[in-house]
Q: What sequence folds into this?
C-alpha cells in the first residue's frame, strides 16, 4: 500500500501532466478533466495514508471521505464534482467548454489542494 509521500508524488506527477497538456490550448480537455480528478484522489489518499488508512475502492473512499469532519465542508463537494465531471468525460463522451475547465474545474482542484495543504501530515511536494 502506498504511503502518504507516494500519493503526493503521484498527485504532483498528474498535476505535471495537466500542465504539459496546456489546458489553454489542448484539444484533450477530457483528459485534463480526468487527470484533475486523479490529482484530487491522490491528495485525499495521501491524507488518509498519513492516518494509516488505505482504500480498495471508490465506494470505500467515498464513505470515509463523506464522514471525515475535516474534509466534509471544503474537500468533499469539490472532490465529488471533479469525480462527476471525470465520469462525464470517460463514460458519457462529454465535450468540455474550455472556460468551464479552466475556470470552474481547475479552480475546484486548486481549492481542494489548498485545503489539503492545510490538513496534510506531510509537507506538500515540490517539483
A:
Amino acid at each position: 500500500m502506498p504511503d502518504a509521500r507516494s500519493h503526493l508524488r503521484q498527485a504532483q506527477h498528474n498535476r505535471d501532466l495537466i500542465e504539459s497538456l496546456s489546458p489553454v490550448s489542448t484539444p484533450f480537455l477530457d483528459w485534463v478533466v480526468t487527470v484533475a480528478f486523479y490529482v484530487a484522489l491522490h491528495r485525499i489518499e495521501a491524507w488518509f495514508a498519513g492516518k494509516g488508512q488505505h482504500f480498495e475502492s471508490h465506494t470505500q473512499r467515498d464513505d470515509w471521505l463523506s464522514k471525515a469532519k475535516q474534509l466534509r465542508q471544503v474537500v468533499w463537494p469539490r472532490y465529488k464534482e471533479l469525480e462527476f465531471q471525470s465520469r462525464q468525460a470517460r463514460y458519457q463522451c462529454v465535450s468540455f467548454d474550455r472556460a468551464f475547465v479552466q475556470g470552474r474545474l481547475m479552480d475546484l482542484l486548486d481549492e481542494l489542494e489548498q485545503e489539503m495543504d492545510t490538513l496534510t501530515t506531510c509537507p506538500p511536494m515540490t517539483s
